[in-house]
Design brief:
This protein is of the alpha/beta class. The protein folds into 2 domains: 2-44 and 91-160 and 248-315, FAD/NAD(P)-binding domain (3-Layer(bba) Sandwich); 78-85 and 162-244 and 318-337, D-Amino Acid Oxidase, Chain A, domain 2. Helix content is 28%, strand content 29%. It has 9 helices and 17 strands. The protein has helices at residues 11-20, 43-51, 91-99, 150-155, 213-223, 276-289, 295-302, 304-321, 323-332; strands spanning 2-7, 26-30, 40-41, 68-73, 78-83, 87-88, 107-110, 113-118, 123-129, 132-143, 163-172, 180-184, 193-198, 201-208, 234-243, 258-260, 336-337. Strands 15-11-14-13-12-4-5-17 form an 8-stranded mixed beta sheet, with helices on both faces. A hairpin with a 4-residue loop joins strand 4 and strand 5. The longest helix is centred in the last third of the chain and has 18 residues, at 304-321. 41% of the residues are buried.
Length: 340
């Protein structure tokens, strides 16, 4: 029996476990699996660590480090470069590093949570270990389990949120591929795709509506040839669900006993799909709220800035995703870098 059961051990779950363990008994159930992800730390994620005087160990970094993003509009044949500062990381190692801060008094269960039952005064979370079903109990339940959250699906099935399928492949020796690119192509997706270089690999991925997602992914690969980008033969293919809220009304915080943090709650940028910083900030917001008499009310208050930030991103989206407006911005060359 625990005060809090956290499902998920990524940035959201790890930060919450680290903070909540100061005042509560905590169990964290998670799968140590690789998530299809560009693996870049944004300014907001960097700020989180700077505010807490935390430095990234070099073991998390991968070459090359990136100082610009190439914005490519395939349909309108436009290519611009803009200065940005990202930290290129190994995402799996990054998640493991965050979990290293979780204190020893937290019970860590590296397994898949298979079933959740809400009882009168507690929650029962079951998982399978060596063919045997085991169960842990908790007063509070927290879903930090990402876009396809079991917690959200179990307790808030009618609270829908827009979602896409993220498909990602890795390649060796791709031709003319930029270090980092954000790709738009209205023929295949109303969201975006990306190219990221990691060590000797080129990673190409994108977010697509579920219907015909794989076909549209392959079509976009072919259409990139018009930009001179030849990806070649793939090494590995991965996929997952990714959320993209249309408005802050799609963000679900919880009901007072069940809480959602990170992408499970809907804390992810609808413009860039960045969610690492929001996962960590929302986790700290909940950890602070759990120490109060009305944790849901306090959690809502603590995430006001995060939710407003997502609202601003929804306002920004038309300028990024409407082809005509994007063409005006890119043609103007405003803030763009001249490619020598």
């Amino acid at each position: 029996m625990f005060d809090i059961i956290i499902i998920g051990g990524g940035p959201a779950g790890a930060i919450l476990a680290k903070e909540a363990a100061k005042n509560f008994s905590v169990a964290m159930i998670y799968e140590d699996s690789k998530k299809p992800c560009g693996g870049l730390l944004s300014d907001d994620a960097q700020r989180f660590f700077a505010e807490r005087t935390m430095a990234l160990p070099k073991e998390l970094l991968v070459d090359p480090q990136i100082f610009a993003v190439d914005t490519i509009d395939v349909g309108q044949n436009l290519w611009r470069r803009y200065q940005r500062s990202y930290i290129n990381i190994d995402r799996k190692k990054f998640d493991a590093w965050l979990r290293s801060f979780v204190p020893e008094n937290v019970v860590k269960i590296e397994n898949h949570a298979s079933k959740i039952v809400r009882m009168e005064d507690r929650f029962a979370v079951s998982y399978n270990e060596n063919g045997e079903e085991k169960t842990v109990y908790g007063k509070y339940l927290v879903g930090a389990d990402g876009a396809n959250s079991l917690v959200r699906r179990t307790f808030f099935p009618n609270k829908k949120i827009r979602h896409y399928v993220s498909v990602q492949q890795s390649f060796e020796n791709a031709e003319n591929a930029p270090f980092y690119a954000c790709i738009f192509d209205k023929e295949t997706t109303d969201c975006c795709a990306w190219i990221v270089t990691k060590e000797n690999e080129t990673i190409f991925g994108g977010a697509f509506v579920p219907k015909d997602c794989r076909e549209n992914f392959e079509k976009l690969k072919t259409r990139l040839k018009s930009q001179g980008i030849i990806l070649g033969k793939e090494k590995e293919t991965e996929g997952c669900i990714v959320l993209r809220p249309k408005s802050t009304r799609e963000i679900i915080l919880g009901d007072g006993k069940v809480f959602l943090i990170g992408e499970a709650a809907g804390f992810i940028s609808p413009s860039s799909l960045e969610g690492i910083s929001k996962a960590m900030y929302s986790a700290e917001a909940l950890a602070d709220a759990l120490n109060t008499e009305k944790p849901l009310k306090e959690y809502k208050k603590n995430t006001r800035k995060l939710r407003f930030g997502i609202f601003l991103k929804t306002v920004k989206c038309p300028f990024m995703y409407a082809p005509f407006l994007r063409k005006l911005v890119m043609k103007s060359g405003l803030t763009a870098i001249d490619i020598k």
